[in-house]
Amino acid sequence: MKRAVGADRGHEGRGGWANQAAADAETAADAAQAVADTVQQKLDNGEFVGPPGPKGNPGDDGAKGEDGQDGGWWTPSVDSSTGELQWFPSKAGMGPMVPDPVNIKGPPGPQGVQGQKGEKGEKKETQERMARSLSPN
Question: 40, 101, 115, 136: least CB-packed within 10 angstroms?
Answer without folding.
Answer: 136
